[in-house]
Amino acid sequence: MRILAIESSERLAQVALFDDFTSVAETSTGVTGPHVSPDPRGESAVSATRLSSSRSLIPQIQTLLRAAQWEMREVELICVTVGPGSFTGLRIGVVTAKSLCYAVGARIVGVPTLEVVARQTQQKMGLKAGRAIKTILNAQRQQVFFSEYKVDTAGNLAGDGIVEIQGRAEWLASVQPKDVISGSGLKPLVTEISGEIANCVAPHDCWSPSASMVAKIGFERANQGREDDLWSIQPNYYRPSYAES
């Protein structure tokens, strides 16, 4: 199945193309234009610069499609992060995904942002059964969005995916020494994390959600019959924006 994944919950948008679970093309930071780079499995992965969502999402998609020699009409599934995250980024990502699905008749799957971070963290760290992963994103106003997951006996993530909002200090005080904490919401807390809790922090390259993990989770959900309705899928903001409050 040919898959397009969109991750726009943060300031920089990212897109990826997958064929089932195989990476075909994806965006990355630190390059000046599209190029072909080695995939960890020995395959080729096409990379391109990550830019702000509002300016570059469609150009990124077009660039990757050309590099992969795909036509948009060949895409069968579009996976997109639905929140929490940047109000503008989420809105652009979901609207783009819906528009493209409508245009080419593709199916659509929404993927929770914090689940993406948790899965990346689990895989990067090789976490075993029973380990708790607490993921957070910056919610502004000295607050964080957070979710909690655990690794089950089969090595899969377990959790209801409920997203809550809490003050930064209160959330940090709830972290236990055996927990693993991950997510870009840790950035403002770096100077406040010390002692045993410092050992809980996941590697930095797990913190930001990637389009490649969005593709993997979305494909799994589609295979489980957990697709979304094109007309009703919406971003999950979890609270009004500054302008609305």
Quickly describe the structure.
Helices cover 27% and strands 27% of the residues. The chain is built from 5 helices and 12 strands. The protein has helices at residues 53-68, 87-104, 113-125, 168-174, 211-223; strands spanning 2-7, 14-19, 22-26, 35-38, 44-47, 77-83, 107-112, 132-140, 143-151, 157-158, 164-167, 180-182.
Protein model, in words:
By secondary structure, this protein is of the alpha/beta class. It folds into two domains: 2-112 and 208-223, Nucleotidyltransferase, domain 5, CATH 3.30.420; 114-206, 2-Layer Sandwich (Nucleotidyltransferase, domain 5). It has helices spanning 53-68, 87-104, 113-125, 168-174, 211-223; strands spanning 2-7, 14-19, 22-26, 35-38, 44-47, 77-83, 107-112, 132-140, 143-151, 157-158, 164-167, 180-182. The strands form three sheets. Strands 3-2-1-6-7 form a five-stranded mixed beta sheet, sandwiched between helices. Strands 8, 9, 10, 11 and 12 form a five-stranded mixed beta sheet that branches. The protein has a two-stranded antiparallel sheet with strand order 4-5. β6, α2 (87-104) and β7 form a beta-alpha-beta unit. α1 (53-68) packs parallel to α2. The radius of gyration is 18 Å and the shape is globular. The termini are far apart.
